[in-house]
Amino acid sequence: MNPCHVRRPLAAALCALVALTAAGCGDPGGPQSAAAAVPTTSGYPLTFDNCGTKVTFQRPPQRVLILNGTSVAEVESFIMLGLDKSVLANAQSYGVSDDPSMIGRIKALPTGGLTMNKNFDVPAEQVLKLKPDLVVSTWSGGFDAKNGFATREQLAAAGITSLVNPVNCAMGKPEATEEEKRAYRNQSINSSLEFIALLGRVFDVEDRALDLIGKLRARVEAVRARVAGRPAKKVLIAYPGMAMMNANGLPAVMTGGIYDDVIKAAGGVNAFAGQSSDTTRTLNTEQLATAQVDVLVVGQFTPDERPEAEAAKLFAAYPHWAASKSRTYAVVSDGVYLGPLNAVAVEKLSKVVHPGD
């Protein structure tokens, strides 16, 4: 059973978020480079293939609708690139962030008075009524008519361009190509940078995008250099506030994709590395109790959660963990997801995985 079939509304929304980043880990310096997702032509009109759909930009978009998709990767990328004024309406939010300033900056964006349907995104009629010149979705499923969303064909007929974060082309696209499936499976920190590069090209701010990518990459590489040669400690990422995603009521344990890549960059290895993306739903108490955990990472999902108290509960429940004996833990929120804050999470984790090295 797919965890996304859980019927409770919040669980379904959470499931979509986790599915976006629960694929296999990729090498951020490998062939899945930012250039792979970015059109190489220059000037306007700019035409390229996006998840099998031909898109054309006559000029930089000025009225952008960012769909929800239970993601913050796209809206945070817009903000960090200084593209705030191009946002007509934003449906993405999280409430906590590894960059505290991000919370207020996202809240400051217009919402266009939009409301979500039962599938946690903006229904077709509202999108078409708003008349944006670009609609951005974190996944192909954001344009699925079966969920009440406007299709890419409907938008094009109305003169509206659509854009999917390229690393998630395969998600919600039954006819995805092998290349798209591979990109989805191999998500890494570099996948976050690819989207920044794509926005830089679409909005004609390439120099700004390259500068941001360079700074973010440099922060990650500085950590990699600091922890190089150190023993890789076993790291467990657990979100107690997402326990509704687990069939046994346990904290949602994250493995694969960007989760593994962030941990690796910080000098660790995921305690459940090599497990399938279904681990989040199927993990049981015995598996958690027998896991080797040197460092606990508590994921914060909502502002009212108390990560310190949640860490204490987990230490008490699993006293045999090395992390429980040493009381070693870190707290993250959105920095381990697809998005521009991976460098922040890598820095946070490295200080606990290899303190003082």
TrEMBL record:
Against Gene3D superfamilies, the record matches this protein to: Nitrogenase molybdenum iron protein domain (3.40.50.1980)
The alphabetical list of record keywords is:
Signal
Q: Does the keyword Methyltransferase apply?
A: no
Q: Where is the signal peptide?
A: 1-24
Residue span(s) of domain Fe/B12 periplasmic-binding: 66-357
Any Pfam family the entry gives: Peripla_BP_2
The cross-references to InterPro entries, in alphabetical order and at most eight, read: ABC_Transporter_SBP, ABC_transptr_periplasmic_BD
Instruction: Name the family.
Output: Belongs to the bacterial solute-binding protein 8 family.
Indicate what this protein is called per its UniProt record.
Iron complex transport system substrate-binding protein
Q: Which organism is it from?
A: Nonomuraea angiospora
Q: What is the lineage of its organism?
A: Bacteria, Bacillati, Actinomycetota, Actinomycetes, Streptosporangiales
